[in-house]
């Protein structure tokens, strides 16, 4: 604290007498209110960031009841999306273009446009979707919560039998390693963490045919991924009245002609708010550009893309995941058979680390989050209460967990094996039943067609097109 006389001299030098001090305090109070308002706005927007959502903003983990009676978890098979990541190089390029547009508009002035022009571009091409520190914390915390929830499967004695399978993408491999570290630290509190190679589980297995099945499906690649017309609904919505209204609004805020903006730049501006919030825990001024109504429109744009490219839009989106679905049930079957023969379960815990593009097709194959009407460019208002909200299904660190139980004293041998699904650590009712626990055989019967007749190698083959010609 400065001595009184020095404080008085400084106040006089600044031209702040007592009235000036009151003005300064008022400014400080106003700034604090503005910061709180900005934080509140970012919090309101965070429910609409789609696949760029923070896990803690949309997930509500809760234990929920397991099977009734004396039942013990026998096996856990999980699919986990990687943790929070940097923007991809493509997204960084759009952020750079947006920043350049602001700088070309002239020297930064007062107001929101000036604050945006002065806001530094924190992301570079080399980051390209890599896992960030927050993403590692996502994984460590998830591991600790699951270890506390399933001590019989994830206790110290079972660590050596934990299997980790990952996509080859560095963000997924790093997520698997961070998860393993979090699991180890939870079970060895206070001890220094060893290197991943020295832990009981060893490094993750790389299996892109399971975790990135979409890259190995020729029909999907040709008819959806590389087919511009496949995303017709997305492009139509970009040019529709809801998006055009936002483009005009943002152009006025940025003080640039509306013709300088397009839906892709608007979307990346919205994601700039989500990136800074998720990665750096910072309230970006970009959050002040959008209100909740804008956020709902931009969320729908993101959901449209996910719906037509990864969800129920085309059958091949989900059918391409057959191999992963069958692999999960292969592990569950194997555990049942080994338990029936009184053998130890060879793989009691399997964690797969992949992408939103891994989880969404599989959930679609299982029949989840399917609205009565498809999402289109023209039914935005009718779909306000839609089931398919990608941010609430596959935020960063999202997870789908199959928990197989063995129940003593069951009425019949078949009923001794029961299964529960957890989506983002919350019990997920079954498609065929409102219950959250099902007899395993009944679940298999419900998915009999997929398990017996859905084969990725056949589903993914492009149909032969016979072309005839009358020309000689």
TrEMBL record:
Q: What is its EC number?
A: 3.1.3.62, 3.1.3.80
Q: MF terms per GO, please?
A: acid phosphatase activity; bisphosphoglycerate 3-phosphatase activity; inositol bisphosphate phosphatase activity; inositol hexakisphosphate phosphatase activity; inositol trisphosphate phosphatase activity; inositol-1,3,4,5,6-pentakisphosphate 3-phosphatase activity; inositol-1,4,5,6-tetrakisphosphate 6-phosphatase activity
Single GO biological process annotation from the record: intracellular monoatomic cation homeostasis
Compartment(s):
Cell membrane
Cysteine pairings via disulfide bonds = 71-407, 273-287
Sorted UniProt keywords:
Cell membrane, Disulfide bond, Glycoprotein, Hydrolase, Membrane, Signal
UniProt xrefs under SUPFAM superfamilies = Phosphoglycerate mutase-like
Q: Which InterPro entries match?
A: His_Pase_clade-2, His_PPase_superfam, Histidine_acid_Pase_euk
Question: What cellular-component terms does GO give this entry?
Answer: endoplasmic reticulum lumen; extracellular space; plasma membrane
Region forming the signal peptide: none
Q: What class of enzyme is it?
A: hydrolase
Any Pfam family the entry gives: His_Phos_2
Reaction catalysed by this chain?
1D-myo-inositol 1,2-bisphosphate + H2O = 1D-myo-inositol 2-phosphate + phosphate; (2R)-2,3-bisphosphoglycerate + H2O = (2R)-2-phosphoglycerate + phosphate; 1D-myo-inositol 1,2,4,5,6-pentakisphosphate + H2O = 1D-myo-inositol 1,2,5,6-tetrakisphosphate + phosphate; 1D-myo-inositol 2,3-bisphosphate + H2O = 1D-myo-inositol 2-phosphate + phosphate
Would you identify the family this protein belongs to, as annotated?
Belongs to the histidine acid phosphatase family. MINPP1 subfamily.
Protein known as: Multiple inositol polyphosphate phosphatase 1
* Gene name of this polypeptide: MINPP1
């Amino acid at each position: 604290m400065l001595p009184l006389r020095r404080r008085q001299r400084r106040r006089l030098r600044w031209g702040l007498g007592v009235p000036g001090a009151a003005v300064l305090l008022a400014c400080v109070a106003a700034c604090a209110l503005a910061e709180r308002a900005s934080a509140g706005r970012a919090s309101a927007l965070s429910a609409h960031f789609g696949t760029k959502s923070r896990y803690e903003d949309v997930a509500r983990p809760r234990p929920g009841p397991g099977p009734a009676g004396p039942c013990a978890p026998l096996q856990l098979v999980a699919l986990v999306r990687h943790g929070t990541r940097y923007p991809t190089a493509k997204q960084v390029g759009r952020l750079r273009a947006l920043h350049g547009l602001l700088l070309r508009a002239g020297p930064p002035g007062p107001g929101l446009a000036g604050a945006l022009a002065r806001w530094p571009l924190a992301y570079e091409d080399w980051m390209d979707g890599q896992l960030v520190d927050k993403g590692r914390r996502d994984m460590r915390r998830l591991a600790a919560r699951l270890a506390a929830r399933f001590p019989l499967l994830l206790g110290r004695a079972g660590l050596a039998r934990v299997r980790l399978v990952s996509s080859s993408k560095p963000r997924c491999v790093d997520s698997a390693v961070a998860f393993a570290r979090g699991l180890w630290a939870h079970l060895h509190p206070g001890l220094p963490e060893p290197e991943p190679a020295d832990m009981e589980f060893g490094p993750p297995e790389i299996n892109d045919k399971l975790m990135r099945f979409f890259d190995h499906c020729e029909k999907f690649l040709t008819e959806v991924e590389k087919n511009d017309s496949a995303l017709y609904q997305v492009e139509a919505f970009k040019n529709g009245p809801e998006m055009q209204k936002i483009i005009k609004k943002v152009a006025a805020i940025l003080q640039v002609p509306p013709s300088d903006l397009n839906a892709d730049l608007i979307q990346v501006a919205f994601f700039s708010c989500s990136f800074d919030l998720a990665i750096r825990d910072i309230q970006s001024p970009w959050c002040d550009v959008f209100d909740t109504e804008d956020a709902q429109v931009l969320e729908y744009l993101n959901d449209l893309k996910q719906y037509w490219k990864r969800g129920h839009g085309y059958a091949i989106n989900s059918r391409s995941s057959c191999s992963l679905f069958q692999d999960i049930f292969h592990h569950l079957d194997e555990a049942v058979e080994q338990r029936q023969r009184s053998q130890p379960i060879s793989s009691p815990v399997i964690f797969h680390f992949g992408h939103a593009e891994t989880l969404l097709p599989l959930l679609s194959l299982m029949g989840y989050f399917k609205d009565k009407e498809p999402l289109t460019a023209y039914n935005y208002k009718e779909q306000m209460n839609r089931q398919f909200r990608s941010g609430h299904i596959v935020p960063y660190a999202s997870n789908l967990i199959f928990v197989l139980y063995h129940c003593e004293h069951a009425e019949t041998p078949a009923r001794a094996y029961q299964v529960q699904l957890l989506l983002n650590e919350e019990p997920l009712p079954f498609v065929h039943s409102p219950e959250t626990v099902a007899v395993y055989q009944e679940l298999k019967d419900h998915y009999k067609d997929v398990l017996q007749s859905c084969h990725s190698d056949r589903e993914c083959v492009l149909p032969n097109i016979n072309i005839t010609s009358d020309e000689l």
